[in-house]
Design goal:
Helix content: 55-70%
Number of strands: 12
Low-confidence stretches: 1-6
Bound molecules: adenosine-5'-triphosphate
Strand content: 5-15%
Structural class: alpha/beta
Number of helices: 18
Shape: elongated
Mean pLDDT: 83
Order of helices and strands: HHHHHHHHHEEEHEEHEEHHHEHEHEEEHH
CATH class of the largest domain: Mainly Alpha
CATH superfamily of the largest domain: ABC transporter type 1, transmembrane domain
CATH topology of the largest domain: ABC transporter transmembrane region fold
Length: 590
């Protein structure tokens, strides 16, 4: 297993920036042009008003300014729209890439890893977590860069006109980011707690919905409702705490921005009315005209605006950091090491399967399989029996490549399984688990899962062989009937037969059954068994048997006891041995 070193959330977010770089650059360039237009617009407004009030005769110049102003208004609206588009393109690019990466990682980590995860929390991370990154890339990052550009551009524009305003701006502006960072640190902690609660709540919701029947049966739904109510209450309190701090931070930002603008206005007003400014005598502030004063006053709020906007978008950063933490955790899941150059499975060779002294433990110190040694000849029908927890499913998991042996090797047609191209190997396998999973969609698509190019006729033939055609044809829309998630609307036996039809479509050399008929009624059982018998023709079969009735026909029975292969032989041979198998049969019969 290889575990990549986990990155810090901020570094992780920064690393994803490169995906969106071309769009981000464009957004920032548009922002820069917009800043220049903003200054020109303020200048034009100030001079139009100045002309209107103090120089009403100069109508030619006034008209030119007014026309330019209208043009700038339109241009800025267009640029704002463009910036918005590119910003969201940037975010969409990151989201798409990350979702794909996380999903692929989950797939590579495999079904065994998934059993240790809460699906609700995982879905929350994949959907809401990645969505939370949008505001970071679409709003926060462009806002950060513009915060550096716009105030600087305004400072340099105002400096030749009035250094007093520049001094006021320089003194008041730093308070905004300083307070924002101070408050932000506190919000960061609450935000991460809030995110974790949301994930727990999502996971719990899913558990409750999926297990509703069990909860009702055991009269436990009220207790679960209470757990959700408690979690919602914790979430509510955390949200309020975040909002309180957010209000506090925006109040602080507004306060400093307002004080700054008010001071600039007072200093300009005093000079326009030729009043003495409350400054030491040796400081002589420059004289100012109405147009200049008004121009500066129009620019003053624009100077503070990006700083205040950064305060708003800082919240997006905190949300993104909380989401990134979870995504990093998923991406840091160790993946099974893959062979550098996977070998091609020699499909022209007879498909033998050989377990050589295989050992496996899910947890250190608790071996699930100990020194298991057996081989299967092509076309052989082998049953694996043993008490619950003996290690039967573990053998299937090893063959499916979901887990790897800790010691020993598995050879397929003489080639080590861990060196094989897994996709190619799985194509040789048909697997019929105890509870097959169907997906939301038509029966047709569920049967030809993984091979969507197959014709309806091929699907119908597979369904016939799986003894499923009859019930499918009786459904209102036949093969086009939409079935719900997990096969809602179908009986257990019908689901099994659809899964069996899938196995026929696969036409694999090795068929792995996890006693598919264990929980079926006699009618369904005989139908599924007939389908299984047909599928088994000419293929190597491994049947994980939970009941001994199904194993008597097997060519060979492997008997597992607490992870060890204790006996093997035909039903008759094993009975004659009077060993563990015999006791197992007696125990089940009694
Ligand atoms: N995901 C897991 N994490 C930890 N231990 C596990 C896990 N899956 C199985 N085990 C343990 O490994 C051992 C073998 O389990 P396995 O599922 O292979 O048994 P089984 O013979 O298939 O049982 P059953 O007939 O009940 O399905 C058991 O002790 C079980 O507790």
């Amino acid at each position: 297993m290889t575990a990549p070193a986990p990155a810090a959330p901020a570094a992780f977010l920064a690393a994803q920036k490169s995906i969106a770089q071309p769009y981000l650059r464009f957004t920032i360039a548009i922002g820069g042009v917009n800043a220049v237009l903003l200054i020109i617009q303020a200048w034009l407004i100030a001079h139009c008003l100045d002309a209107l009030v103090f120089n009403p005769g100069a109508s030619i110049q006034f008209n030119t300014w007014l026309m330019s102003l209208l043009l700038i208004f339109m241009l800025r609206a267009l640029l704002n729209w463009g910036a918005e588009q590119t910003a969201f393109q940037a975010a969409a690019q990151v989201k798409l890439t990350l979702r794909d990466r996380v999903y692929r990682h989950i797939q590579a980590a495999g079904p065994y890893w998934l059993t240790s995860q809460r699906s609700g929390a995982l879905a929350e991370d994949l959907i809401k977590g990645i969505e939370a990154l949008e505001a970071y890339y679409a709003r926060y990052l462009p806002a950060m860069t513009l915060t550096a550009i716009i105030p600087l551009a305004i400072l340099f524009t105002v400096l030749p006109l009035d250094w007093v305003t520049v001094v006021i701006m320089l003194i008041t502006a730093p308070f905004i980011p300083i307070f924002m960072i101070l408050i932000g640190k506190r919000v960061e902690v609450i935000n991460q707690q809030q995110w974790r609660t949301l994930a727990r709540m999502g996971a719990h919701f899913l558990d409750v919905i999926q297990g509703l029947a069990t909860l009702k049966l055991f009269n436990a739904s009220r207790r679960e409702t209470q757990v959700i109510a408690d979690l919602s209450d914790v979430y509510r309190r955390q949200t309020l705490a975040v909002l309180r701090v957010a209000f506090l931070s925006s109040a602080v930002l507004e306060f400093f921005a307002t004080v700054g603008i008010a001071m600039i206005a007072v200093f300009i007003g005093f000079r326009l009315y030729h009043l003495t400014l409350p400054v030491p005598a040796w400081l002589t502030p420059p004289d100012i005209t109405f147009a200049q004063g008004f121009f500066i006053l129009l620019l003053a709020p624009e100077f503070y605006l990006p700083l205040r906007a950064m305060g708003t978008h800082y919240h997006s950063r905190l949300e993104a950091i909380a989401a990134a933490e979870r995504l990093i955790a998923i991406l840091a899941t160790p993946l099974p090491s893959l062979p550098a150059q996977p070998q091609r499975l020699l499909t022209n060779q007879p498909l033998t399967v050989q377990f050589n002294h295989v050992q496996f433990a899910y947890e250190p110190g608790r071996a699930a399989l100990i020194d298991v040694d057996f081989s299967l000849a092509p076309g052989e029908r082998v049953a694996i029996v043993g008490a619950s927890g003996a290690g039967k499913t573990t053998i299937a998991n090893l063959l499916l490549g979901f887990i790897r042996p800790d010691q020993g090797t598995i050879l397929i047609a003489g080639q080590p399984l861990d060196q094989l191209d897994m996709n190619e190997w799985r194509r040789q396998l048909a697997w019929l688990p105890q509870r097959p999973r169907l997906f939301q969609g038509s029966i047709l698509d569920n049967i030809r899962l993984g091979r969507p190019e197959l014709s309806t006729a091929a699907v119908e033939y597979a369904a016939q062989r799986a003894r499923a055609a009859e019930f499918i044809e009786k459904l209102p829309n036949g093969y086009d009937t939409i079935i719900g998630e997990s096969g809602v609307g179908l009986s257990g036996g019908q689901i099994q037969r659809i899964a069996l039809a899938r196995a026929f479509i696969r036409d694999a050399q090795l068929v792995l059954f996890d006693e598919a008929t264990a929980s079926l009624d006699p009618e369904n059982e005989s139908l599924v068994q007939a389908g299984i018998d047909e599928l088994a023709q000419g293929r190597t079969v491994i049947m994980i048997a939970h009941r001994l009735a199904t194993v008597t026909q097997a060519d060979r029975i492997l008997v597992l006891n607490a992870g060890q292969l204790v006996e093997q032989g035909t039903h008759q041979q094993l009975l004659a041995q009077r060993g563990y198998y015999c006791r197992l049969v007696a125990a089940l019969a009694g």
